UniProtKB/TrEMBL annotation:
Residues 15-76 form the 2TM domain. This is 2TM domain-containing protein. Keywords: Membrane, Transmembrane, Transmembrane helix. The keyword DNA-binding does not apply. The chain crosses the membrane at residues 25-46, 58-79. It comes from Merismopedia glauca CCAP 1448/3. InterPro entries: 2TM_dom.
Amino acid sequence: MPPRWPREPDRNDPAYRKLDDRMNFAVHVALFAACNSGLWFFRIFLDANWSWTTWVTGVWLAALFAHGVYIFALANYSLDSHG
């Protein structure tokens, strides 16, 4: 069952923004896991000579880490912080 919001969704609502940002982060983590597991499957089990997969995974993981730091540590969800 999908999450339900008790009132009309509004991006100006700090609680809604916080939930929305965290759900977007979860989608990005899922995409990272799905894409990288596929890349590494082909590299390891099918013996593909893809040396660039290390760089793709590393750069993507660094971007994902930065996104997580912003969402969980730096983002300000107070009422007067948005527009």
